[in-house]
Task: inverse folding
């Protein structure tokens, strides 16, 4: 039961901090609205699958707990990034017409802490769901596995593409300042050494 309670708490934090899908004033889309809608729909569908897996799980083993710890780490990155960004945050696939270059806090160890946190959560949740998918869908395991794999591929691919587009946009907008920031701060995986890379 502790596993399920922690899992639900992580889902709530992830949705509250990571899934802010409201359109911000002064923002534009990197991609067409249908692709953004598909991203939002699939994200919530994958979250629902993880929640369902939590409740079909009779006993969590060490792998499940490791995955939950990875999700906790990812959620911590998401919260730290969102709090650091404050009003400079937009949903993936969108950008602010007048962005701010945020390089403090968690942004001093990775240029994309939100995406890094989301990827940790996606990987961990996927492992839990896949490990328990036969209990979730005993009569339709392979079709559901195919659908989940396609949904996850779209979501992960979309996020990675958006991280790259955002980087290009910020480079165009901030020029040398962003180049200097990029030179000392990794794109995705955090650097915990003093002074960045």
Result:
């Amino acid at each position: 039961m502790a596993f399920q309670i922690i899992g639900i708490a992580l889902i709530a934090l992830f949705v509250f901090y990571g899934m802010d899908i409201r359109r911000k004033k002064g923002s534009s889309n990197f991609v067409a609205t249908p692709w953004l809608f598909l991203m939002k729909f699939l994200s919530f569908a994958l979250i629902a699958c993880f929640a369902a897996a939590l409740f079909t799980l009779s006993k969590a083993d060490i792998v499940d707990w490791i995955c939950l710890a990875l999700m906790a780490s990812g959620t911590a990155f998401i919260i730290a990034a969102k709090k650091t960004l404050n009003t400079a945050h937009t949903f993936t696939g969108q950008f602010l017409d007048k962005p701010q270059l945020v390089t403090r806090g968690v942004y001093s160890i990775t240029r994309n802490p939100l995406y890094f946190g989301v990827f940790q959560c996606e990987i961990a949740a996927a492992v839990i769901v896949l490990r328990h998918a036969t209990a979730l869908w005993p009569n339709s395991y392979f079709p559901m596995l195919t659908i989940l794999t396609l949904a996850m591929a779209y979501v992960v691919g979309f996020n990675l593409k958006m991280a790259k587009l955002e980087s290009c946009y910020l480079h165009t907008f901030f020029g040398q300042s962003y180049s200097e920031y990029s030179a000392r701060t990794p794109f995705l995986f955090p650097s915990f050494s003093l002074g960045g890379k």
About this structure: The two ends are 41 Å apart (CA to CA). The beta strands are 27-29, 94-96.
